[in-house]
């Protein structure tokens, strides 16, 4: 099977199995999504969703957040991983948007990555979710799942993974493909114990056919 054929099979599967794939972070506008994604670094979406309501109640917009005191923000997000750095990032992000971008969150990757706490992955999430731009956000799930299935080959970095995926995924599906891989990695293709018996991609998955299936045949003496 060629990689092009493998991508075709994956797209057909997810289009049927997960037609409405989207982020599991709760948000009502671009500001809330940006804050939530910054907080989600090395933290679960569930924990972020438990934390953001109180944060948004006290800081409902960028202007309010830009004037926040570090200790106040820290107290609201202290249950999140790395609350110290993230408190500084949130305040710094809000201040830069207000001062450099006139209070409007920019919608290009090149501009977004200038903001404190915003790396390429976060910028890709914002532009793809808010604006459906064909930008592929690569987190640990996307990195792992794309390699296991065989969508990427020898991609050693998130950027290499992003570039390979974007080169094969149709432009109009890039924004959704990211969510497909994240959700598949979060609930089925787990890091330590992938649930291959529950997966509909085993027939074309390189990992399954080279590792799981091969081990099963070996144990049966085949």
TrEMBL record:
**Would the keyword Iron be found if you checked this record's keyword annotation?**
yes
Q: Where is the HhH-GPD domain?
A: 39-187
E.C. no: 4.2.99.18
Which Gene Ontology BP terms does the record give? Answer: base-excision repair, AP site formation
User: Which CDD domains did the record assign?
Assistant: ENDO3c
The alphabetical list of record keywords is: 4Fe-4S, DNA damage, DNA repair, DNA-binding, Endonuclease, Glycosidase, Hydrolase, Iron, Iron-sulfur, Lyase, Metal-binding, Nuclease
Q: What does this protein do?
A: DNA repair enzyme that has both DNA N-glycosylase activity and AP-lyase activity. The DNA N-glycosylase activity releases various damaged pyrimidines from DNA by cleaving the N-glycosidic bond, leaving an AP (apurinic/apyrimidinic) site. The AP-lyase activity cleaves the phosphodiester bond 3' to the AP site by a beta-elimination, leaving a 3'-terminal unsaturated sugar and a product with a terminal 5'-phosphate.
Protein name per its UniProtKB record:
Endonuclease III
